[in-house]
């Protein structure tokens, strides 16, 4: 099994070896600028080589962390994979295994001595999954006894939410699938005990608004996003409260990428959005990252808890 440093090294090497293939096929982006599904498909096959190496070297098995065991992830995942394997569908499954994130989430929770966090969540309070891909995480938590809502936008979902809807039918699920653009409208209709918002922030034009609105409706939020320790010109920005706005084709040739915060910047955003950081974790090119180069990628994970006076978030300017 590859350790994380090896994964990063192999992923970088694989990207460099295949960059000519990326250049030869870059016309796909020009022809399909409005078709985010095809952009994501191409990007997943050419650029996410590090993730492919993870899956290959794990031999389709989870890293058996304590969290994986507690949530019964191995058996749930095996059942889900079997359903997908047997399915005769006219769409492609999301290529990244969302459930693999729990090996990283395990480290996040350990950093804050929150190993029993999910076991202690109140099952009378629903869970929200924003940017649900095929819905794997949502279906997992429904199987654990939670009521679950998912939010995604068909136009930017990998397969127009077809996979999530298919699995809902196959699993006789009662999850609610809500379709709208969280960058423009996040006026949630109910309160949530916990929200997954992983890999979302840097794809939003308005991350401040997004977190503000989540603060009003969710007691806890788990976020992950790309951050950068250095600007493109090499300037160290880790300890500056800043964010870099990438150009439409500057990162992955993907126009859905926007704000890449520094470490201090993302912490400041969290604080001013009405949350406290319970625990956090960084992976990837830690302290060696940039906002615009694919393999100089640093990821920030954090479990957030909203402040006690969250209802005042829009009533004064002390946030």
Automatic annotation (TrEMBL):
The lineage of its organism: unclassified sequences, metagenomes, ecological metagenomes. Gene3D superfamilies: Vaccinia Virus protein VP39. It holds the Pfam family Methyltransf_23. This is Methyltransferase domain-containing protein.
């Amino acid at each position: 099994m590859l350790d994380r440093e090896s994964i990063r090294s192999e992923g970088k090497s694989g990207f460099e070896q295949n960059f000519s293939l990326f250049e030869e096929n870059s016309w796909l982006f020009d022809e399909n600028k409005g078709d985010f599904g095809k952009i994501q498909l191409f990007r997943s096959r050419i650029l996410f080589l590090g993730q492919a190496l993870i899956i290959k070297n794990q031999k389709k098995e989870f890293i058996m962390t304590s969290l994986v065991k507690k949530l019964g992830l191995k058996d749930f995942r095996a059942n889900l994979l079997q359903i997908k394997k047997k399915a005769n569908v006219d769409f492609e499954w999301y290529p990244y295994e969302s459930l693999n994130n729990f090996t990283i989430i395990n480290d996040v929770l350990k950093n804050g001595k929150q190993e029993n966090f999910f076991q202690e969540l109140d099952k009378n309070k629903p869970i929200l999954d924003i940017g649900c891909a095929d819905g794997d995480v949502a279906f997992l938590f429904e199987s654990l006894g939670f009521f679950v809502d998912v939010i995604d936008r068909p136009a930017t979902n990998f397969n127009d939410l077809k996979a999530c809807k298919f699995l809902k039918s196959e699993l006789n699920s009662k999850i609610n699938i809500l379709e709208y653009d969280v960058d423009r409208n996040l006026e949630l209709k109910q309160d949530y005990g916990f929200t997954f918002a992983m890999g979302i922030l840097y794809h939003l034009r308005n991350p401040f608004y997004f977190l503000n609105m989540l603060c009003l409706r969710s007691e806890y939020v788990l976020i992950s996003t790309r951050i950068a320790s250095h600007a493109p010109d090499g300037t160290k920005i880790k300890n500056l409260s800043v964010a870099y706005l990438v150009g439409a084709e500057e990162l992955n040739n993907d126009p859905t990428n926007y704000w890449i915060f520094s470490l201090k910047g993302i912490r400041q955003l969290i604080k001013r959005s009405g949350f406290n950081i319970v625990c956090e974790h960084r992976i990837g090119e830690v302290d060696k990252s940039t906002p615009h180069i694919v393999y100089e990628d640093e990821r920030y994970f954090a479990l957030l808890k909203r402040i006690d006076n969250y209802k005042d978030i829009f009533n004064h300017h002390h946030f």
